[in-house]
Specification:
binds pyridoxal-5'-phosphate, alpha/beta, about 15% strand
Length: about 500
């Protein structure tokens, strides 16, 4: 039976998985959701004997029902290969009283690699299935991390091009080096003189430009987006929650069916929503703990049932969680209304118009599996130091927010469930903040000197993603004014 997808904001249009992946966003502005979340059709016991790739197939085949077995397995093989520095793909390690699910073993040492390494293959397969002959041009604006993960995922994938815009003076030195040294004949990276919002607005304008779309089409191109609301990014993230439970079972850390907690450092609500989907598929979950930094709009939402983005935007040491509009929350809202697209649309309209909406008490009851928590900068730094001193393990700033939230939660409750913390980035990616939290003596040291210190202190090898950019040649050095973004795209594609 084909699983169809529809918008969170209307029931009128049903599309297949491959069409939902190609389109990214529904035409009414809603997000594509499956008509129902499928249940795992094999036992947890049998999953405990499977590899990451085997579990990936078992999960994805239930969501992407219009892909053949060989198409899906082919996508999985191409994605989860030696771009990852461990054959486990994700590692589950126990440190102190918690398990850390390391999602940072991919090409750019952050969890976005888990989905962005497979999305290009899902997209090109989807294009073929729908008889699209055009080359897919991925257009992305980035504040740092997503751009590099998308570049690494799409580099040299046949039938695709990728063009990334970043604010020239708005990303870290390491982030910029990661992008401008990107190899792959189909990749382009351009700095703009404006900020991230300018880059984002410029990209949106190109997506909405009908004349540009015509010009592209006449040259055999069409735009697509690698945005985190694409269902082709959400589903691959469900896999590692099933995988985490399978490893706990395999290690006899839990009895079959025993409930566990997942703690997820959250920004756009994609990662934790994937955990919620995993629970709905049959993974035994006690609590899903949503960890925020000082931009705690989600914590307030879980406390009060009111989502209110009208507040100060705070820059923190966990920048990938500095978000006031968590786009993927819309999929949870849809679920807790009982799949009511009209009610969902009304709330999303309120969010656009007033920056605020409130859910009903019946809806709040439907999301009782979630617990919100948050940690400020001081608490986060203290957690990095504490975990390092007690275990020798070094957390990145995002994971540290989750770890702090978990330890505070544990102190306040008598919940002794086995707990898995999603570890979303390697500490090497945020060396300055991480080392600064461990000791004053590392403050004001040069980026790469700090990396050498981090390797010594954590007794780990410097990841390839870092060592390779140290001496790599700069390949992309174009910088343009914000108003000239489209001209650059036209030049690259020879329109
Ligand atoms: C993107 C990101 C997050 C937030 O994930 P969401 O799916 O947006 O909630 C957390 N940590 C890191 C390191 C990230 O890159």
């Amino acid at each position: 039976m084909e699983l169809m997808y529809q918008s969170t904001r209307s029931n009128s249009e049903k599309v297949t998985a491959s069409q939902a992946i190609l389109r990214g966003l529904a035409s009414d502005g809603g997000l594509f959701v499956p008509e129902s979340i499928p249940s795992l059709d094999i036992s947890l016991e049998s999953i405990s004997k499977m590899s990451y790739k085997e579990i990936a197939y078992e999960v994805m085949k239930l969501f992407f029902t219009d892909f053949t077995e060989s198409e899906l397995k082919n996508c999985i093989e191409k994605a989860y290969d030696n771009k990852f520095d461990t054959s486990e793909i994700a590692s589950l390690v126990k440190k102190g009283d918690a398990y850390y699910l390391e999602l940072f073993h991919g090409a750019t040492i952050a969890f976005k690699d888990m989905a962005l390494s497979i999305l290009p293959h899902l997209l090109t397969t989807s294009a073929k299935k729908n008889n699209i002959k055009n080359e897919i041009v991925i257009l992305t604006a980035t504040s740092g991390d997503t751009g590099k993960a998308a570049l690494a995922g799409f580099a040299d994938v046949e039938g695709t091009r990728i063009i990334v815009f970043y604010p020239k003076n708005g990303v870290s030195h390491i982030q910029e080096r990661q992008m401008v040294t990107q190899k792959g004949a189909n990749t382009s990276v351009i700095g703009i003189t404006g900020n991230f919002d300018d880059a984002q607005s410029g990209v949106k304008a190109m997506f909405n430009n009908k004349e540009l779309a015509k010009a592209l089409n006449s040259q055999g191109y069409q735009f697509s987006s690698a945005n985190s609301i694409n269902i082709g990014r959400l589903v691959p993230q469900v896999v590692y929650y099933v995988y985490a439970y399978s490893r706990l079972l395999a290690d006899d850390a839990v009895k079959n069916g025993e409930l566990v907690n997942f703690v997820v450092p959250t920004g756009n609500f994609g990662n934790i929503l994937a955990a919620y989907y995993a629970k709905n598929m049959g993974v035994p979950v006690n609590k899903l703990i949503c960890a925020s930094n000082q931009n705690k709009v989600l914590f307030d939402f879980f406390e009060t049932g009111i989502y209110d983005k009208n507040r100060e935007f705070i820059l923190t040491s966990s920048p990938s969680m500095d978000i006031l509009i968590s786009s993927n929350l819309e999929r949870l809202i849809y679920k807790i209304t009982g799949d009511d697209a009209q009610a969902t649309r009304q709330m999303m309209d309120l969010l656009t118009k007033e920056g605020r909406y409130e859910i009903t008490s019946a809806m709040r009851k439907q999301m009782s599996v979630f617990v919100g928590g948050w940690a400020d900068e001081k608490r986060t730094a203290a957690e990095i130091k504490m975990v390092y001193e007690n275990t020798g393990y070094v957390l990145d700033t995002h994971t540290a927010v989750a770890s702090a939230v978990y330890h505070d939660y544990k102190q306040k409750t008598d919940d002794t469930s086995i707990t898995v913390i999603a570890s979303t980035a390697s500490p090497y990616k945020f060396g300055t903040s991480v080392m600064g939290a461990i000791s004053e003596k590392y403050k004001n040291m040069d980026d790469f000197a700090l990396i050498d210190e981090l390797a010594k202190l954590s007794n780990t090898e410097i990841p390839r993603a870092i060592s390779e950019i140290r001496h790599a040649d700069v390949i992309h050095n174009t910088v343009c004014e914000t108003v000239d973004m489209q001209k650059e795209v036209e030049k690259i594609l020879a329109l």
